[in-house]
């Protein structure tokens, strides 16, 4: 079952791509676009052997599955291309859409390899240099009654100021895991799920490392290579980009801002509004501090720094630098032979601002493929939606308005007609009385209107009582409505954006990834209702 979904930009990108062609590298719906991007990426020089060594070292350190290691080795072949996606290092794997991004990329890589006869590897970029701790420190799970609970790990020094890749879990993670164990509905998979999470999320473990370990376990058997983007060993491969930014301060921002303004002029929106003095770089010395340029002077935070000092540092110590959102994709696609990036809705929008940025940094821009989007429902919820013909999104409001409207439409025709006729007749008769009274006594006008209001109020109350009686007769349906509502929109938010992977691991066990891989459609522009 499918439902249409997406912003105007994402829908136009999928179904009327010509409207947005100026902002992207090509239309992923056309084979010609794939052939062109494969050729561009294969001819771009890059240090493949060094990148493979970096990947293999990370995978070895995390003891990743052999399938992932074999896939990484394929990147040494100059013919090999990559499908890339990525996400921040969320607690317990982050929300469901994290897994959906990885599976969309893996499915796409397999299709490209078959259709175009080129070796194609899936890489999941772990955004370990982000420093938005609040966004990754919490996870939501549903209890046995499908009530949503937020779990948050605390006691972290430097959280919010240093990159997530440098944040290490404290003993508080033990408390959070115990709370998780208590909240999860008990299934045959609960013990194994909690044990696996305890192996990944241990006191002293880096938050990004824990996330990487979990993704290795889930996606590694499919040959997905998880890459920690904060690895200092990879920074020399991006040093030329850092130096170009410092040689042309503000140029990256200007190009992205101009594209954003053009998108707005075309009736869309600019996802990223760059700071007027932004350079698109952070300093990693003592945290993750923005590097700015104004009035001919560089600043690291509020501290002025000589241009030559920064340039020399970028040459000798590229690990001291980090790209911001406008530059990260360019760094990623310089390090990797990326022919397509699997993007969420916000990423799709901001990547539309970067075509000129890619060109300025002499890097081939990949195609952008929207990630698959869906809601996993059980058979009872799917039967409810099928029986009522309600759209999934109608369940998002956290009340029973939709159910009441549907129940009203199910009233026996004679009863519904009787109520309608009564209301119509009363309106008609009271209208006639209002017209006749002034001739007798104008002062009675207010009394008639007051009586009309009371009668209308009584009729509405009678109507409500009829609906209540219908709801009593449909208690089972009412429970099904609440069940589907809580499962699909916990707290009023889409399931895939709230409920963390741990909950789905607990519900479906080892079958979660292979079953979702098989049934998840990757056709863009639609939101899918899934039953595993």
Question: How is the secondary structure organized here?
Answer:
Blueprint (H helix, E strand, L loop, with lengths): L1 E3 L3 H8 L15 H13 L4 H15 L3 H9 L6 E7 L8 H21 L3 E7 L6 H4 L1 E5 L5 E5 L19 H12 L6 H11 L6 H13 L4 E5 L10 H9 L3 H15 L12 E6 L5 E6 L2 E4 L2 E3 L1 H10 L4 E3 L1 H11 L2 E6 L1 H7 L3 H6 L6 E4 L2 E4 L2 H10 L12 H9 L3 H28 L4 H29 L1 H14 L12 H8 L3 H8 L6 E5 L2
Parallel strand pairs: 2-3, 2-12, 3-6, 12-13, 14-15
Antiparallel strand pairs: 1-15, 4-5, 7-8, 7-11, 8-9, 9-10
Helix pairs in contact: 3-4, 7-8, 8-21, 10-12, 16-20, 18-19
Tell me what you see in this structure.
There is one protein chain. This protein is α/β, with parallel strands linked by helices and 532 residues long. The model has no long low-confidence stretch (mean pLDDT 90). Strand 9 and strand 10 form a beta hairpin. The protein is globular, with a radius of gyration of 28 Å.
Label this structure with key terms.
alpha/beta; 22 helices; 532 residues; five-stranded antiparallel β-sheet; globular; 51% helix; single chain
Helical residue percent band: 40-55%
Note the overall shape.
globular
Number of helices, counting only DSSP H or I runs of 4 residues or more? 22
Distance between the termini: 13 Å
Largest sheet: 5 strands, parallel
Poorly predicted ranges: none
Quick description:
This protein is of the alpha/beta class.
